[in-house]
Amino acid sequence: MAVEIFPEQYPSTSYASEVKECHQRITPASAYTLSSRIDSLPPEIHLKILMLLSRPDVDNCSLVCQRWKNTVTLNAHLLARHQIYSMRISERKGDFMLTIRTTEDFEKRWEFPKTVANAHPRKRILSTNEGIPMKQRKLSEIEQKNAQIFFAAHGSTLISSLIHELLQTEDQTNYKAKLHTPTDAFFRRFARCFQLADVKQLFFDEVRLTDGFVDFLDFLTQENTTFVCDELRLDFCKLKYITPSSFAKLFKIIRFSSCSMAYIRDNVGHILPSNEVSEALKTCQRLDLSNITDDVCFSEEYINSYMGNPTPMKTLRLDNCEITNIWLMSLVERWKTSAVSFSNICLNSGLISVMDLKKSLSRVTSSCSKEQLFLIEHSVEPKRSLKVWTDQQGVHLVEMCCSASQ
Question: For a designed S-S bond to 258, which of 109, 238, 286, 401 qualifies (C-beta 3.0 to 4.6 A apart)?
Answer without folding.
Answer: 286
